[in-house]
């Protein structure tokens, strides 16, 4: 499978993807369909806003005491017969998983759809160790067979239409196992049956399964996976060894907290009242399910994100993808332009925090938004994505990541952006002095006929290429108010 390494900054990638008319057609049809169904499912819940607030509060409380709940989770998982591993970054997580698979003597694994394993590039790391990972989610299978990249959190192959999927199946399935049936059409039922037959032999043969988890319940050490096809259930129950790679923010304190998210997630993601397949497991049980269970708790930038009082909102995310389906930027640019397993609005705030803003790609993501606010309106845990986007834009302008020193958050300023900072200082000086502001306004109105509509040269050229300058009115508000007062006899 391809990787996101070396991808260009968002504006450059989006300039290419927005010209792909077939891609835009696929995205428009899919996102509009999903958003309409979600809106209908949410409208059935009279207490939706209360549920939303409860989910946000539960997540915030958990994040404030994350260390306590993670230690509680570790104790519960260990008591139930599982083994817990801690991974500070992607490299360590990949090394742990590869070592666990090698210890079984196996060279193949089956995988449940997992954002965390995409984030760390686990498939590629296993391949480098001579271990082949088979994706079993239908959309992930399409992406893997097509040597492609996921472009959506919920529907990774949303950028493909049925004809393209048929061509991928007929051309590539044989190289990965059972070939596609002869005369395969693009009917959804036939495509699903071809995938089912192809995957069944892998389910029955695999000795090692790899998953993520939607939630982890600290009080019992229970892991929870929600999915719609049943492939996850096969991966989680049939293998002898199960390895779950989960971000540390996925923990919830109690089953009572879990109940809130079990209502929020299905309606926000697949527009269903109840999730079709919900698999829960606690450690190991003799004669039932895997004999060995390993939980790899992944940090990979999450602790740094947690230290940011504004940006930590992103760690509330339950990966429903509702924000992608309403985002006008995502709909036109597609998921690949974000250069991350996390595309769309949530990716624009999560990726720069997990990876930092040192690269041109990551520094461009906070600007991949019109700040329309639609993402915040649909987020089931009330993440104020526009607020975080603006916050991260400040980080990019200031030129560096946040450094926490005790209780203070310190920004290391950038050497560049001198012109912008000088302009802001001048504006501040002017706004603090009414007479100076009045003089500037009078000058602007007197010269309005000769003022350009754009900034063609100088530091504002890049900004001006895509924006017209606002028209200057004939008189300032202050002048208008003074004239109005005189006319009214005041």
From TrEMBL:
<dbReference type="InterPro" id="IPR017900">
    <property type="entry name" value="4Fe4S_Fe_S_CS"/>
</dbReference>
<dbReference type="Pfam" id="PF13183">
    <property type="entry name" value="Fer4_8"/>
</dbReference>
<feature type="domain" description="4Fe-4S ferredoxin-type">
    <location>
        <begin position="314"/>
        <end position="383"/>
    </location>
</feature>
<keyword id="KW-0004">4Fe-4S</keyword>
<feature type="domain" description="LUD">
    <location>
        <begin position="70"/>
        <end position="297"/>
    </location>
</feature>
<keyword id="KW-0411">Iron-sulfur</keyword>
<dbReference type="InterPro" id="IPR024185">
    <property type="entry name" value="FTHF_cligase-like_sf"/>
</dbReference>
<dbReference type="InterPro" id="IPR009051">
    <property type="entry name" value="Helical_ferredxn"/>
</dbReference>
<dbReference type="GO" id="GO:0051539">
    <property type="term" value="F:4 iron, 4 sulfur cluster binding"/>
</dbReference>
<keyword id="KW-0677">Repeat</keyword>
<dbReference type="GO" id="GO:0006089">
    <property type="term" value="P:lactate metabolic process"/>
</dbReference>
<dbReference type="InterPro" id="IPR037171">
    <property type="entry name" value="NagB/RpiA_transferase-like"/>
</dbReference>
<dbReference type="InterPro" id="IPR004452">
    <property type="entry name" value="LutB/LldF"/>
</dbReference>
<keyword id="KW-0408">Iron</keyword>
<keyword id="KW-0479">Metal-binding</keyword>
<dbReference type="InterPro" id="IPR024569">
    <property type="entry name" value="LutB_C"/>
</dbReference>
<keyword id="KW-0249">Electron transport</keyword>
<protein>
    <submittedName>
        <fullName>Lactate utilization protein B</fullName>
    </submittedName>
</protein>
<dbReference type="InterPro" id="IPR003741">
    <property type="entry name" value="LUD_dom"/>
</dbReference>
<dbReference type="Pfam" id="PF02589">
    <property type="entry name" value="LUD_dom"/>
</dbReference>
<dbReference type="InterPro" id="IPR017896">
    <property type="entry name" value="4Fe4S_Fe-S-bd"/>
</dbReference>
<dbReference type="Pfam" id="PF11870">
    <property type="entry name" value="LutB_C"/>
</dbReference>
<dbReference type="GO" id="GO:0046872">
    <property type="term" value="F:metal ion binding"/>
</dbReference>
<keyword id="KW-0813">Transport</keyword>
<feature type="domain" description="Lactate utilization protein B C-terminal">
    <location>
        <begin position="412"/>
        <end position="486"/>
    </location>
</feature>
């Amino acid at each position: 499978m391809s990787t996101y390494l070396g991808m260009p900054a968002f504006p450059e990638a989006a300039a290419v993807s927005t010209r792909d008319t077939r891609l835009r057609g696929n995205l428009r049809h899919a996102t509009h369909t999903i958003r309409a169904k979600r809106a209908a499912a949410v409208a059935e819940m009279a207490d939706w806003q209360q549920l939303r607030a409860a989910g946000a509060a539960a997540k915030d409380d958990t994040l404030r005491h994350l260390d306590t709940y993670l230690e509680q989770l570790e104790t519960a998982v260990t008591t139930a017969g599982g083994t817990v591993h801690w991974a500070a970054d992607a490299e360590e997580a990949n090394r742990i998983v590869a070592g666990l698979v090698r210890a079984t003597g196996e060279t193949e694994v089956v995988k449940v759809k997992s954002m965390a394993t995409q984030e760390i590039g686990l498939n590629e790391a296993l391949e480098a160790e001579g271990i082949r990972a088979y994706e079993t989610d239908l959309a992930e299978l399409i992406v893997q067979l097509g040597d492609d990249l996921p472009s959506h959190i919920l529907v990774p192959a949303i950028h493909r239409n049925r004809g393209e999927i048929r061509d991928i199946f007929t051309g590539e399935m044989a190289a990965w196992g059972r070939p596609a049936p002869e005369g395969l059409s693009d009917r959804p039922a036939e495509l699903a049956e071809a995938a089912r037959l192809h995957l069944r032999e892998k389910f029955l043969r695999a000795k090692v399964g790899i998953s993520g988890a939607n939630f982890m319940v600290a009080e019992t050490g229970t892991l929870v996976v929600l999915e719609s096809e049943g492939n996850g259930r096969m991966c989680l129950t049939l293998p002898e060894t199960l390895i779950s790679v989960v971000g540390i923010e996925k923990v919830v304190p109690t089953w009572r907290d879990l109940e809130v998210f079990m209502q929020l997630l299905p309606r926000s993601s697949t527009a269903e009242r109840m999730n079709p397949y919900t698999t829960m497991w606690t450690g190991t049980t003799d004669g039932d399910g895997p004999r060995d269970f390993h939980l790899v708790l992944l940090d990979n930038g999450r602790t740094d994100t947690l230290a940011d009082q504004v940006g930590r909102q992103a760690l509330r995310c339950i990966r429903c993808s509702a924000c992608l389906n309403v985002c006008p930027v995502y709909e036109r640019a597609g998921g690949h332009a974000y250069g991350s397993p996390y595309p769309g609005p949530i990716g624009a705030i999560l990726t720069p925090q997990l990876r930092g803003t040192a690269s041109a790609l990551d520094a461009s993501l906070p600007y991949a938004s019109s700040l329309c606010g639609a993402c915040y309106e649909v987020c089931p845990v009330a993440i104020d994505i526009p607020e975080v986007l603006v916050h991260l834009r400040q980080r990019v302008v200031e030129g560096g990541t946040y450094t926490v020193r005790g209780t203070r958050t310190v920004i290391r300023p950038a050497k560049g952006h001198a012109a912008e900072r000088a302009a802001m200082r001048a504006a501040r000086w002017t706004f603090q002095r009414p007479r100076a502001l009045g003089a500037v306004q009078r000058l602007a109105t007197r010269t309005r006929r000769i003022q350009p509509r754009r900034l063609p040269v100088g530091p504002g050229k890049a900004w001006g290429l895509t924006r017209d300058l606002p028209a200057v009115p004939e008189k300032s508000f202050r002048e208008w108010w003074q004239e109005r007062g005189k006319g009214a006899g005041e």
